[in-house]
Amino acid sequence: MTRNPNHDILFEPLQIGPVTTKNRFYQVPHCTGMGWQRPRTLAQMRKVKAMGGWGVINTEYCSIHPASDDSLHISASLWDDSDISAHQLMTEGVHEYGALAGAELWFGGVRSANLSTRLTAMDVASLPNSVGHPFQTRAMDKNDIRDLRRWHRKAALRARDAGFDIVYVYATHGYLLANFLDPRVNTRSDEYGGSLENRTRLVRELIEETKDAVGDRCAVAVRFAADEYEEEDGKPVHGERREMLALLAEYPDLWDINIADYSLEMGVSRFTKEAALEPYMDFVKSVTTKPVVTVGRFTSPDTMASQIKRGVTDLIGAARPSIADPYLPNKIDEGRSDDIRECIGCNICYSGDSLAVPIRCTQNPTMGEEWRKGWNPEVIPSKGSDATVLVVGAGPAGLEAARSLGNRGYHVMLAEATDTLGGRVTREANLPGMSEYIRVRDYREQQLLVMPNVEIFRESRLTAQDVFDVGADHVALATGATWRSDRFDGAAYGAIVEDGSGVQVLTPDDIMDGKLPDGPTLLYDCDGYYMGGVIAEKLHLAGIDVTMAMPSDNVSPWTAMTSEQWRVRTHLMRLGIKLIMSHNLEHFDGAQAMLECVYTETPKVIPVQSVVMVSQRRTNDDLYAGLLAKADGQAENLPFSLKRIGDCEAPAIIAAAVFAGHRYAREMDNPTDPDLPMPHDKVDVSLVKPARQQKALEPQLVK
Ligand code: ADP
Ligand code: SF4
C-alpha cells in the first residue's frame, strides 16, 4: 500500500537548530516508571518506537541533580558521569533507526520533597510541597541560583556526551522554572522577581547557557505552557503568556507547548477528546519563527496533517499515541492507517508512574515488556506447529489471544456467546463518556476479520461437551466475569439484603443490560475505579436521584493513579450527585440503606428505594469447572491443553485482560518455566561505587 498524499506533510524533514528530524512524529517526554532504575527496559522500549518510525524520541523528566528527587516516582537522572552509559543505551538504539533523541532536563523545586536524597528542596520562594508532603522549600538565594545554573549546564554536557540531539529547559508543570515565571508565587524582590523580564531571566539564562554548552551539537528545546488557567466554561486565559513567549521567542531552537491544566493536557477520553489543546495554540506560531510542537492525543493522520497545514504546530507531539502504537508513523507512511492501534485515553500508562512500576498500556500489551520478554508490538514468532486453538469468549482477553495467535499463523476458532464481539468493552463503551473504549474491540475485530486462518463463531455459547466436540489441540477460556450483588467487607463476602426478603439489588451488569432502578437510589462503590462514577452518571442522566456512598475517603480512589480523580469528583459534584465518603454499606431493606462510618461505626440511614452495588466480580468459570469435571478434576487428563485467561481467571482491569490474551498467544506453545528467574533489570552491586562521597573524615576523639 502507498501513503495517502494528504499525509505527505507528516514526512517532511524539519531542521531544529543544529539537528534535523526526518519527519514530524515527535514523542514528547513522558514518564515510564523505569527511569534511572530500569535502564535496559527503558532503552529497549524507546528503541521500539524508533523502529516504528518516530522522528524524535525523548526521555522522561531527567533530574539534573540529587536536589531534585521525585521518589517514589522514578525519573531519569543525569547526576554524574555514571549516568551517561545508561542513557547511551537509549540514544544508540534510537539513532540506529535514524531518529533523534532528546533529554528533558528537570529540576522539581516545590514538587519534589527529595524523600530519597534528603537534600533540602528549593524553589523561588519558601513554599509548601505541592504534592502534599509536609515539607517546605527553601527560598533560593543567589548562591542557589548559581548552583542550579551550574548543575543544569553540567547535566546538558552529560546529555550531549550520552548522545542526545535535543536538550530541554523544562519550564512548565509546576516545577521550579514554572514558578519563577509565575507572578503569584514569584514574590522575589531581586532581579529574578517582579517584572516580566526579571521573572523570565532564569529561563533565558538556562537557554543561553545550555546553547553555549551544547548548542553546536544539540538543539535546545523549551517546554512552556500557553495559558495561565482555564475559565469555568473551558476557555483558556493566556494572561501574560503571549508576552512572555514573545520575550523568549527566538532564544531556543524549539518550543514544546503544553497547558497549565495537566488534567486536561493528560485528560482521559471520558472528559477530553483528540486535539483538545488547539484553542490554546492560537497565538504561538505567530510570535516565534522557531519550530513548535504540541500534543493532543492524536491518532487520526488527517487531524495531524491538518494541524500542520493550518499552522497550529510544526511537529505532532505524542506520548500516549506512541505508547498505544509505537509503529504509528510507519503505518501512516505505508498507507495502513486502519492498522493503527488507537489510544483509548484510559491513562493506565500514567499509573506506571503513579505506582513506580514499568509503564503498561491497555491497547499495547507489549509496552514495558520489550526488554524483559523481548516483545515487539508488530513482530511475533510464527506458529510452532499445525495445532488448532479454540478461544472461548471474545472480550479483550479472547480477542487479543485470537488476534495474536492468528498473526502467528495458527488455525484459530473464536467462539462468542453473544452476537457482538468485545465483551466488557462493548458494554462499557455505551456508558457516559466511555465511547473510545470501543477501540479495544474495533482494532482487534478489524484485524481478525481479514485473517483467513481465524474463524469467528458468534451466538455460540459453548458447553463443556461443545468444547470436546470441537476437537482443538489447545483451549483458552476467556469467558470473563460478572459483577456481584454482595460485597467483600474486608473479611468475607456478604449480602446486604436479608435472605428471602425479595429485595432486589442491581449491579453494573444490570444497568449495562438496560435495567434502571426505581426511585431514589444509593450507589455503593467499593470497587474504587471508574465504574462507580460512570454508573452514577448514567443513572443521573436517566433522571434518577443518586447518592453515591463509598468506604474510601475520596471518590473513585484508584482514578488518582490515572490522573483523573480530580476531574471525576468535580464532574460528579457538578452533576449534583450526592457523595458520602468513608461509609460501609451494611444493609438494605427495600426502603432504607443502613451505612456505617468506617472510623467510628456511627450509623447513617439513607431513605432510598433502590441500591446499585459496584463491588467485586465473580469469575465466569462454569465452563472451566465443567471441563475439569470431565477429566477427574485434572486438566492434564484432557485431550487438549486448557488455560483460563483474563477476567475469568482473576478479574482485573482491561489492560490485564489484553495482556493475558497476548501472553497466552506468545507462550501457548512455549510456556515460561515458573522456576526460571525472571529477567530483572537491576543494578549489579559489584559495579556500583557511591557517586558522591564526602572527603573521608579522620575519626576524632571528642574532647
Ligand atoms: P475479559 O475481560 O476477560 O476478556 P469479558 O467479560 O470482557 O472478559 O468477555 C468475556 C466474553 O466471553 C463475553 O463476551 C461473553 O459473552 C463470552 N462468554 C462467556 N461464556 C461463554 C461461553 N460459554 N461460550 C462462549 N462465549 C462465552
Ligand atoms: Fe492510551 Fe490507555 Fe494505552 Fe495510555 S494506557 S496509551 S491512555 S490506551
UniProtKB/TrEMBL annotation:
Question: Which keywords has UniProt assigned to this entry?
Answer: Flavoprotein, FMN, Iron, Iron-sulfur, Metal-binding, Oxidoreductase
| NADH:flavin oxidoreductase/NADH oxidase N-terminal domain ranges (all copies) | 10-338
* Xref: InterPro entries: Aldolase_TIM, FAD/NAD-bd_sf, FAD/NAD-binding_dom, NADH:flavin_oxidoreductase, OxRdtase_FMN_N, TMADH/DMDH_FMN-bd
Q: Which prosthetic group or cofactor does it need?
A: FMN; [4Fe-4S] cluster
- Tell me the ranges covered by the FAD/NAD(P)-binding domain, including all copies: 388-624
Known EC number: 1.5.8.1
Please list the GO terms describing molecular function.
Answer: dimethylamine dehydrogenase activity; FMN binding; iron-sulfur cluster binding; metal ion binding
Pfam families, per database record = Oxidored_FMN, Pyr_redox_2
Similarity annotation: In the N-terminal section; belongs to the NADH:flavin oxidoreductase/NADH oxidase family.
Under which name does UniProt file this protein?
Trimethylamine dehydrogenase Tmd
- Please name the source species: Octadecabacter antarcticus 307
Primary gene name: tmd
